[in-house]
Amino acid sequence: MANTSSARKRIRQTEKRVARNKARKSRVRSFVRKLEEAIASGDKSAAQVAFRAAQPELQRAATKGTLHANTVARKVSRLSARVKALAAPAG
């Protein structure tokens, strides 16, 4: 157990930060899941709306340091490509 006041403070700070990051990641996953469902349904307009909602959440997670910026860029790029592919004719 922490023995100094500074160590106890670090524990308190870590607990708060973990809770914030957990909530933020959960929120991102929820938005991405809604987008995945819209893509799976094949409804391009719904997918575009879901993408426009998910993108700022992903960017916010990167800005706040919850997710790495490159991870967010990769996810946004891949999701965007999948949304765009819905309009392309099959074959």
TrEMBL record:
Record GO biological process: translation
GO MF, one annotated term: small ribosomal subunit rRNA binding
Keyword Mitochondrion found: no
GO cellular component: small ribosomal subunit
Region (Disordered): 1-26
TM region(s), chain numbering: none
Sorted UniProt keywords: Ribonucleoprotein, Ribosomal protein, RNA-binding, rRNA-binding
One Pfam family recorded for the sequence: Ribosomal_S20p
Record's signal peptide: none
Recorded superkingdom: Bacteria
Similarity comment: family membership: Belongs to the bacterial ribosomal protein bS20 family.
Function: Binds directly to 16S ribosomal RNA.
Protein name: Small ribosomal subunit protein bS20
Organism: Neoroseomonas soli
Gene: rpsT
